[in-house]
Amino acid sequence: MRLRNKPGAKETILQHPNYILTDGSDWKGKWQERFLKAQPLHIEVGSGKGQFIVEMAKAHPEINYIGIEMQTNAIISILEKQLEEQLPNLQLLLVDGADLTDYFSDGEVDQVYLNFSDPWPKTRHEKRRLTYKTFLRTYETIAKPKAELHFKTDNQKLFEYSLASVTWYGMTLKKVWLDLHASDFEGNIMTEYEEKFSSKGQPIYRLEAIFNGKEAE
């Protein structure tokens, strides 16, 4: 996803440290302190322009959310939405999703969302896919035992790859949707990409999987 540069984006981000951080390492293990109250913590890796994470925070005030995005020109759009909404259960983190263990302690996260991630279709780029085993290991490290991964995409090949990847990793597939919008799934909140692709008749694929590798202490 390539976005136009927004004048003053970096300056705006630095002016609002109460909502957005460019380095979350100081809050590792202490994220609940940035919210109004301690609640289950859900993160979205690759939040884009933020429609999903903002609407989820609005729909579920009983959950704390962190939107993680590495592109300044994308996350500034989320920040603009948050400045308008001022949701007490939403925080933003401008970092690379590959480095999550630098920013979250083991077992700190209750749920992980991946929405319309870059498919990286070439075989030589497999390791960059957000459902590749090293990413799954990272999510599992920062997640609580039996935490869930929720994944949506319009890309059939990436979805097939992800089904195989989570299965080989040892996760339990909780549920799979091959055409989400034609199903009876309730409470779906769409991303900007989802609105675009579904309006053209493109099926949306979704899965929920459970991490099994860690046992509760």
From TrEMBL:
PROSITE patterns linked: SAM_MT_TRMB (PS51625)
One GO CC term on file: tRNA methyltransferase complex
MF (Gene Ontology): tRNA (guanine(46)-N7)-methyltransferase activity
UniProt keyword terms in alphabetical order: Methyltransferase, S-adenosyl-L-methionine, Transferase, tRNA processing
Record's catalysed reaction(s): guanosine(46) in tRNA + S-adenosyl-L-methionine = N(7)-methylguanosine(46) in tRNA + S-adenosyl-L-homocysteine
Record InterPro entries: SAM-dependent_MTases_sf, tRNA_(Gua-N-7)_MeTrfase_Trmb, tRNA_methyltr_TrmB_bact
EC number: 2.1.1.33
Region described as Interaction with RNA: spans on this chain: 124-129
Residues binding substrate: 122, 154, 191-194
Pathway: tRNA modification; N(7)-methylguanine-tRNA biosynthesis
Residues noted as binding S-adenosyl-L-methionine in the record, renumbered to the chain: 44, 69, 96, 118
A Pfam family this chain is assigned to: Methyltransf_4
The protein's enzyme class: transferase
NCBIfam families in the cross-refs: PRK00121.2-2, tRNA (guanosine(46)-N7)-methyltransferase TrmB
Family: Belongs to the class I-like SAM-binding methyltransferase superfamily. TrmB family.
Function field: Catalyzes the formation of N(7)-methylguanine at position 46 (m7G46) in tRNA.
Protein's UniProt name: tRNA (guanine-N(7)-)-methyltransferase
Taxon lineage: Bacteria, Bacillati, Bacillota, Bacilli, Lactobacillales
Name of the gene: trmB
